[in-house]
Amino acid sequence: MLVSTKGRYALRVMVDLAEHQAAGRIPLKEIAARQGISEKYLENILATLVRANMLSGMRGKGGGYVTRPPEQYTVGEILRLTEGSLAPVACLDGDCKGCSRSDECPTLDVWKNLDKLINDYLDGVTLDQLVAPNHGYDYVI
Fold first, then answer.
1. N or C: where does the chain have the smaller number of CB atoms within 10 Å of the terminal CB?
2. H helix or E strand, kind and range, residue 55
């Protein structure tokens, strides 16, 4: 599985919005500046997230983007939205009609187990875990 630029940027944008949600609606220009992403490319990513009801957007004066509480989002759902399937091999992809050799494939269980590990892990990480101060470390320097 190779996560595309769109998937990586979508995750960064969602973390950024979660970190700054107390400020209210966040303008596109602010997100683009903080993340070093062109506004044009970012517009496409945000449109995808809005269409999927991952966040809400408002244009014009006072406009910007807001999210639900960060604990309501998983990394897995954000990546599946932007990437499609996270399956490590085509024969496990939801769009695949199945492999004619699956009945005798000696490696199928390896790919199924890897697919489960990937999805379980990514679905177990929420945005609030990514924006938590110090990412869970409990010490002071």
1. C
2. strand 55-58
The residues facing 57 across adjacent strands are 65
Length of the chain as a residue count? 141
- Tell me phi and psi for residue 7, to 5 degrees: -65, -45
Measured distance CA(17)–CA(73) in Å, rounded: 12
Q: What pLDDT, on a 0 to 100 scale, did the predictor assign at position 123?
A: 97
Q: Which of 114, 49, 124 is nearest to 81 (CA)?
A: 49
- Euclidean distance between CA atoms 67 and 88, whole angstroms: 30
Q: Mean of the pLDDT values across residues 11-37? A: 91
Whether residue 97 contacts residue 74, with contact meaning beta carbons closer than 8 Å, is answered with: no
pTM: 0.83
In whole numbers, what is the pLDDT of the chain averaged over residues? 87
